[in-house]
Design goal:
alpha+beta; Gyrase A, domain 2; 6-stranded antiparallel sheet; 4 helices
């Protein structure tokens, strides 16, 4: 059996900010009634966190959960545990209207680190990247150029970005170009 690898195989770029392949990450799309107590219990069992507020991301020792839409969450767990988590969700919610899918191998996770992470993303995303427009712990589903992405800040200088695996190399190259040393205008300062 072959070993799982990321699409970017550990790629890294050091410029005005560091852009790096964040490695394998278990990701589960969970759709259902986000107000349902049973679904909230499933999330708690999977990642040991409560339900996020709209546009919120909660991160902890056992994983993370991100609000993706009024009926969708993204659960992030260890890569090798994703199938088991989906199986547990299927058992716990049997008979209810829901969808739980392991999308780990269809996604790439990138990590941007440095004082200018907001400015790098602002070069291509039609979103308010100011500290007021994108507070730490809030997720945005948008586009980077013409590519669908989601991103959030876990602190003032660390941004996580998820995109489809099929465009992972393109997004990495785009971000590396946007993060060239000396290329940031200095408009967006960290919190």
């Amino acid at each position: 059996m072959s070993e799982a690898v990321t699409a970017l195989r550990g790629a890294n770029f050091d410029g005005a900010v560091t852009v790096s392949d964040a490695g394998l990450r278990g990701m589960i799309t969970l759709r259902g009634d986000l107000g349902d107590e049973k679904l909230a219990a499933v999330v708690k069992a999977a990642v040991r966190l409560g339900m996020p507020k709209p546009r919120g991301v909660k991160e902890g020792a056992k994983g993370a959960v991100a609000w993706m839409s009024p009926d969708e969450l993204l659960l992030m767990v260890d890569y090798d545990k994703a199938d088991a988590v989906v199986s547990g969700i299927d058992k716990a919610l049997k008979g209810d209207h829901f969808l739980a899918v392991n999308v780990s191998d269809a996604r790439v996770v990138l990590r941007l680190e440095g004082q200018g992470v907001r400015e790098v993303i602002a070069k291509g995303a039609p979103a308010d990247l100011s500290p007021e427009g994108l507070p730490i712990g809030e997720i945005r589903r948008t586009r980077l150029g013409q590519v669908a992405v989601a991103f959030w800040l876990s602190d003032a200088e660390i941004l996580h970005l998820i995109c489809f695996r099929s465009v992972g190399a393109h997004v990495f190259n785009w971000l590396s170009n946007a993060a060239q040393a000396g290329s940031l205008p200095g408009f967006l300062r960290p919190d």
